[in-house]
Amino acid sequence: MGAISRLVFAAVGLFAASTVLGQTPPAVNLLIGNATVNDAQAAVNDKFAELLTKYSNGRFKASARHGEALGNNAQMLAALQAGAVHGRIFPVGFASTVVPELSLWDMPFLLPSEPARATAFAAQSKAAAKMKELAEQKGIHVLGFHGIGPESLLTKFPVNKLADVQGKKFRVIPSPARVGSFQDWSAVARPMEFSEVYTALQQGTLDGMENPPDVIFKMKHFEVAKYFTITNHRTQISIFMVSKKWFDGLPQDLKDVVTRAGKDTIAFADTIYTKSQQDSLELMRKAITVTSMPAAELQKMKDAVRKGVWEKMKNDPQRGPMVKLLEEDSARFNKK
Prior knowledge:
13 helices, D-Maltodextrin-Binding Protein, domain 2
């Protein structure tokens, strides 16, 4: 048993024993794992930890650990399933290795670009409700989804047309929808851990990446790739999860605390991401070359993925029904 696992096991046992004896249990230390530092994602994880502590009146003592201090994304996800990490808020594509259907949030040109509108889309989504059920079966309790912001292309070379990305190597989160998109655009998709991206761009192992302005600016990737082409081809969405093993063992009042903290953190995320995306884009305009993909070339991007990854996912026996639900969600949402 690892050190983190032993700590959590002992804390849960002490909590249960104190409850049985009618005593006020000591604060239970909660670990919130995060891969980034000094960006909106880190701030949202900090807010969740803060609200867990506040709303529990100190029965929880939660802290967010940033910069992969608890392991990389795959390691933290496994630790969450085991109950050694209690919560995580991070881009949903990283969780698709455990729940494949979650990768469908990464379908290109699916979601509205604005963070709050993407959050609203997820809140009314029948596909999202089904994804939550599937995640429960894998030891993940999903509190919700929230919008991060629109993704565009950061490159080491100018992009004025779709053909410019042909054969170029782009870092992607390892989800089939993302990999498929770049394949449809005749680029090379390179799944890679986030901590490796800066060096890979610097050394030329990568030619570019996709991300919202906030991540690119706060993580200083613009220092090693000087061209940002606005495509808004994908809206990054974050999954808000806690360990089902841990959550199921809580008394109802503390389950309510976790749910309330999650709801209020999502509202906080909408506000902070909206401002952060706007501010980061303006700051990047002063540091590197920022352009917009011409409308005709953007249409080529849309046409390629509609014929490619969208059709592939629709015809996939496992993912096809979820793609249909997402399309129905989109039609319903856009009628409002």
